[in-house]
Automatic annotation (TrEMBL):
Origin superkingdom: Bacteria
Organism of this sequence: Mesorhizobium australicum (strain HAMBI 3006 / LMG 24608 / WSM2073)
Record-given protein name: Fe2OG dioxygenase domain-containing protein
InterPro entries reported for this sequence: DUF2086
């Protein structure tokens, strides 16, 4: 694994203490039932402001994307470079094992052979062996009129089936509009929409691509996409934690 991708064990341990405080049985049930689950107050207001304040600092990022140029919507985001900021890297490493347990159970139900290793470092080794070496955690910025089209964050053949977004701004104070939305397409049915209310520091874990649903004849796969509705005023920052790296 690229040494720059490694996170100090002390940082992961500190993040794990924070992550362990949540009721993961309840969160797993939410993920199973709806494809998403909210972790309230994952970050403090100060941590949110510190991360949002990184956006104009070029040295932290490997690329800068303007959504309109690619048909992704309207707004912009920056992909972090390795080494990731301590907080982002620590949370990425600490969240992964909890979500890998859900991901492995989902794959078993969907008849997918892939099983994810116990640690994020081991999973990144697999990504890098497959030529996926570019970090994918990102920092997004929206201003009035911006939105993010429904999409899936798949950056190569090897993709982890869950990801996390953390809202860094306070709705009603820093911005209005800009709701996180998740759509789910079930076979021979119209799409179901889940609008996820978040406050500053809240995180939402959600399915990247597919999840299993129990039907009358066993489990079947549903297809999910996520996006952000139009920002009506102010400025909105979000951190996205994606667990696979990109080609």
């Amino acid at each position: 694994m690229n040494a720059d991708a490694r996170v100090a064990p002390s940082l992961v341990a500190a993040a794990e203490t924070r992550i362990a405080a949540y009721d993961w049985q309840a969160l797993a049930t939410e993920l199973d039932s709806f494809g998403c689950a909210v972790m309230e107050k994952l970050l403090s207001a100060d941590e949110c402001r510190q991360l949002a304040g990184l956006y104009p600092q070029e040295q932290h990022f490997r690329s800068h994307i303007h959504m309109a140029r690619h048909g992704f919507g309207k707004g912009e985001y920056r992909y972090f470079r390795y080494p990731l900021p301590d907080l982002v890297g620590g949370l990425r490493g600490a969240l992964y094992p909890r979500l890998a347990a859900v991901a492995n159970r989902w794959n078993e139900r969907m008849g997918i052979a892939m099983r994810y290793p116990a640690t994020h470092g081991a999973f990144l080794d697999q990504c890098h062996a497959a030529g996926q070496v570019r970090p994918t955690p990102l920092l997004l910025k929206y201003v009035p009129g911006d939105f993010n089209c429904l999409h899936q964050d798949l950056y190569g053949d090897l993709a982890f089936p869950l990801q996390v977004a953390i809202l860094l701004s306070e709705p009603g104070e820093d911005f209005t509009g800009g709701e996180f939305a998740l759509t789910e397409q079930r076979p021979r049915m119209q799409s179901r929409v889940e609008v996820v209310p978040l406050r500053q520091g809240d995180a939402v874990a959600f399915a990247v691509h597919n999840r299993p649903v129990q039907g009358t004849k066993g489990n079947y796969r549903v297809n999910l996409r996520h996006g952000v509705s139009r920002l009506r005023s102010g400025m909105r920052h979000t951190v996205g934690i994606i667990f696979h790296d990109a080609k």
